[in-house]
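Reply to dn_fold:

You asked what the input looked like. This is it:
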Amino acid sequence: MDSAMAAVVRASGAFGGILYVLPPGESAVWQVLVTGLPQEMAAPWRRVGLKDPMPVADAVRERRLVWAGGREEMAREYPRLALVLPYDFGLAAAPLVSGSAVRGGLVLLWPGSHPARLSAGEQDVVRAGCRRLGDSLQRALDRGEALLPPDRPRTLPPAAPRTPSPAEATALSAFVDRLPGGSCALDLDGHLTFVSPGAAELLGVDRSLLVGALPWEALPWMDVPHVEDRYRAALVSRRPQTFTVLRPPGTWLSFELYPDATGLSVRITRGSPDAEAPPSRSVQTSGPSRATVLYHLMHLASTLTEAVSVQDVVEQTADQLMPALGAQGMVVMAPAEGRLKVVGQRGYSPELLRRFDGTPLTAALPGVDVMATGVPGFWTTFEELHEAYPAMTHEDGMAAWALLPLIASGRPIGSLLLSYRRPHVFPPGERAALTSLAGLVGQALDRARLYDAKHDLAHRLQSALLPHTLPDVPGLNVAARYLPAARGLGIGGDFYDVIRLDEHTASVTIGDVQGHNVDAAALMGQVRTAVHANATVGAPPDRVLARTNRLLTDLDPDLFTSCAYVHLDLATHRACVALAGHPPPLLRHADGHVEPVHVPPGLLLGIERDAWYPALEFPLPPGSVLALYTDGLVEAPGVDLDDAITALAGLLEHGDPGDLDAMADALIRHAPTPGDDIALVLVGPPARTAGHSRGHSIVFPGKKDERRSRRAGSGGEDPS
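and this is what came back:
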């Protein structure tokens, strides 16, 4: 396997690679062999899930060759990888297949000087090497060998350099000593393998303390982000790099790094903080530094995790990106029904953007093209922009523009415009950084759009399932309130209903389905419909709940429901209530005294098909108020439920029975922060002096089971 790995790296012209295996039955690939780069640099991807947005995952999952050439393409296609390695290099990933089974994946790395595409010959070499490696893994599996290493991947060492003759070694030493400044060498892991006397003198440390050490550990003043960053850039891009660093107290040193397959050669000379770096066409020093980019990426990523809605994403992106990048304008665009929609902006006049909002996606506009192709656009002058889009006019007063695709799940879902009032150049490093930042915004925007859609669906569903208006029942005052939980989608299973049965009778129901999701809301609609249907045929409370319970147990929804059902006889001013695991209603008497309506509660609906629900009759004279509520109105962490109900009774006692809306608002206002949904219904006959009879219980047409009033107890009322 080692020889096959070395052969494909050598034949393809790659400088390094990583071999992954896919153990049978697993959903992730694991590193087993690394060559051409330090294990520390490959460590973040030691395990890669097959659903992760990584090249090797795509290659293995989709059984295809994946290529990403250069920083911009890497940042656009694989922003996570580009965040950690924001350098110029090419990467190919391919599956290792043996027969019909995928056994792993291969990642190969090329220098930044590689052309933008793999040649046909390179692709053939990669595929042939993958077949050999796949067969090797299959043979190891057939022999019963463990595919995964016991601790960490093995490192395949680079080919040993040619050993010079004694004469060549002497001449080489003299050559190095004659050069001005100092020289040293590092292996691929960053350890110093050679330090010239001149280098030791400039570094101010004895050579014996340097050889074998990491520079940023042996020399504390080199432990700064840009030193290790340039070392990593040299290894990954295989291009020369330079940096200047201060050796305390006042000596500035300039370093030139020259990489190859075995390590780095370093030239050290005296420098100055504002001196130009030694000329090197392959070194890009403009644009934000890696440390700066990573800071903004991490900060933006952490803030976007808190963004819930699309507007949250727009606001937080503007707050973070515009000051960090020096931009003065930002526009977020997305497709909507075949047209361009401006979903948010900062720094532009609404009048200007309204001209573009709603433009067909067939229009020749930069924002449209970026969404269609997923390729960013950068224009340093209006002349460049006008050359690409002749129909564009210079209306925004900006001098430079960057248009970035917002990518989510591998597809463009929108575009992000950043604009600058002053001339601005976009070097490759900054282009890659901007593309990576846009990748984070795209993923957050996709999540936010999904949340907004679910939130809208939830509220429409909740609105459809709850009563739009309460019926006008002569002789009955009614007020109802619903408050969704503060968490989740704002949808739940609490419901209520007021049903006018005939000229003198009505019913009130309230309930709470377990859960705070669409399933709970759907079941809530079924329960409310079942209660309503049984109520309208004149069934008494015990039968309404029993029949509803049988329906739920037959449906087997795997969710339970509490419910209270009250039948109101407005001619006799009496009520009858039955409970299914629900908190007791509160009755406010005309004199202001409040007490719970004590009725033995039956089981929650949906548990036992033949459950029985006791009922209780009681007077409801004019001026009294009956309060039905769900547990969200009284439950709070650390508060005893009986104490909470007593507190609610106290609020009800001090309310005005002539204004049930004000009373309902007061009860909701004093409720705990809703971790659960809250439903509340207040009903009561208006205060008057005549028109009711105290001596008759409620008569239900066709009632056959007289056990209800005897078993439940009627509190001394006269039976009919």
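The first strand starts at residue 16 and ends at 21.
Hope that clears it up.
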